[in-house]
Amino acid sequence: MRRFKQAAVFTAVALASSVVMSGPAMAASSPTAVCGGGSYRVIDSHAISGLATIYLLYNGSTNCVVTWKSSKYQGGYTLTGATIQRKGGSKISDTGSYKIYAGPVKVNAAGTCVSWGGHASNSTGVGEGWQSSWTHCG
């Protein structure tokens, strides 16, 4: 019985070590990568007071928004958000305490207008947000 407990403890420690050593998945390297790759292209952007830039991307049928924190604020968890809304539809948002970016938030909006935006804050919680009017119609 004692050997079984020791073996079980060793196995549990070995498994835990392998999980810890594997590390997190690589973070996306750009707003395009966050949205899903090469078929997306940036069609608009808006800077938020040096805190972040909100990117609107499109792939021919789907709009995608990512709020990408400025390098000065990357690495620390700060409140960051991204939003998008198709005209006549519900607002879709992603808000949380993030290291690099918020989003992606996506909506199928070929042939209609979207409102898009986001917000970001610094390490002391001071932040700013922005929301577009109905734009990119069509």
Outline the structure in words:
19% of the residues lie in helices and 43% in strands. It has 2 helices and 8 strands, in the order H-H-E-E-E-E-E-E-E-E. A hairpin with a 5-residue loop joins strand 4 and strand 5 (92-98).
Question: Mind sketching the topology for me?
Answer:
Elements: H1 2-22, H2 31-35, E1 41-48, E2 52-58, E3 62-69, E4 78-86, E5 92-98, E6 101-108, E7 114-121, E8 127-131
Antiparallel strand pairs: 1-2, 2-3, 3-6, 4-5, 4-7, 7-8
In short, what is this structure?
This protein has 138 residues and is an alpha+beta fold. The protein has helices spanning 2-22, 31-35, and strands at residues 41-48, 52-58, 62-69, 78-86, 92-98, 101-108, 114-121, 127-131. Helix content is 19%, strand content 43%.
Spell out the key features of this protein:
4-stranded antiparallel sheet; 2 helices; globular; disordered N terminus
- Fraction of helical residues: 10-25%
The overall average pLDDT, rounded, is: 84
Percentage of residues in strands: 35-45%
Let me know the largest β-sheet: 4 strands, antiparallel
pLDDT below 50 for ≥5 consecutive residues: which ranges? 1-26
- Shape call: globular
How many β strands by DSSP?
Answer: 8
Count of DSSP helices? 2
